[in-house]
């Protein structure tokens, strides 16, 4: 039998799962399953929805014979599978619960088959495993979305950096490098509300405020990356998350600002795997 694992990526509003061929470094055909999750639901509703998605992704394989590796946002006791998320408008009902035991019970498998890992670290590991950072052994990863995920890799070992709350400008890094910054800043400049960065790109491209907000974001991002580089001295950085879908409006300027700050060009790469990165990274975790 092929060396396979069930890779899972849990976000604030979704769960994605697929069987991964670890030798070919690809998902197994017809196993991709993605579902929206009501993260404000009861613990039972959330666990049941997760279990249903995992059953769909197993596609006839016996879950009892599979290693199930799950990328999950923190804070969390990953080793024991205990959720520590609170005050984040998601998964409030899971706080303090042993998700490993609850999910295993719902699936009818041993808790020892389920492994939770930090989602930002899984994103970076996925890009090293089969994405834009293949061949690198020292790098950092940023996931730019609802929040800010940070991770680093040294000698093939990937860890969550937890720099979302690093002191930055007049607050913390996540205050300036996240969807909520775009929403807040656009309201300050334009006096109207946007839902997210996609809304900004779809409905306001070409306006003066559009250009201003991305100019500010690219400079903020470059300054944050520089702080990250000085801390961990990586050889490259990879960017992922939903905000990266707006790449044409900020990534090149971010590279330019970073080169001006550092005095030389530093590799700033876009995720090659997109939302599959964390899933592949989780599956490949040893």
Automatic annotation (TrEMBL):
This is ROK family protein. Belongs to the ROK (NagC/XylR) family. Pfam families: ROK.
């Amino acid at each position: 039998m092929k060396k396979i694992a069930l890779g899972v990526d849990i976000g604030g509003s979704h769960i994605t799962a697929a069987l991964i061929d670890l030798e070919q470094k690809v998902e197994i055909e017809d196993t991709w399953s993605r579902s929206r999750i009501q993260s404000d639901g009861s613990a039972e509703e959330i666990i049941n929805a997760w279990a249903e998605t995992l059953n769909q992704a197993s596609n006839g394989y016996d879950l009892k014979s599979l290693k199930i590796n799950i990328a999950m946002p923190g804070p969390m006791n990953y080793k024991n599978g205990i959720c520590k998320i609170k005050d984040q408008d998601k998964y409030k009902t899971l706080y303090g619960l042993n998700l490993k035991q609850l999910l295993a019970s719902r699936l009818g498998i041993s808790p020892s088959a389920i492994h939770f890992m930090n989602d930002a670290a899984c994103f970076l590991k996925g890009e090293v495993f089969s994405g834009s950072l293949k061949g690198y052994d020292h790098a950092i990863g940023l996931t730019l979305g609802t929040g800010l995920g940070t991770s680093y890799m040294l000698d093939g070992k990937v860890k969550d950096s937890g720099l979302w709350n690093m002191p930055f400008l007049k607050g913390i890094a996540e205050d300036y490098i996240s969807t909520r910054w775009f929403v807040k800043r656009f309201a300050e400049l334009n006096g109207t509300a946007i839902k997210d960065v996609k809304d900004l790109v779809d409905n306001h491209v070409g306006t003066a405020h559009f250009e201003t907000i991305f100019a500010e974001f690219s400079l903020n991002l470059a300054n944050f990356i520089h702080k990250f580089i000085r801390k961990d001295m990586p050889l490259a950085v990879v960017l992922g998350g939903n905000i990266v879908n707006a790449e044409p409006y900020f990534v090149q300027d971010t590279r330019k600002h970073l080169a001006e700050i550092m005095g030389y060009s530093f590799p700033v790469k876009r995720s090659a795997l997109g939302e599959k990165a964390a899933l592949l990274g989780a599956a490949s975790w040893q």
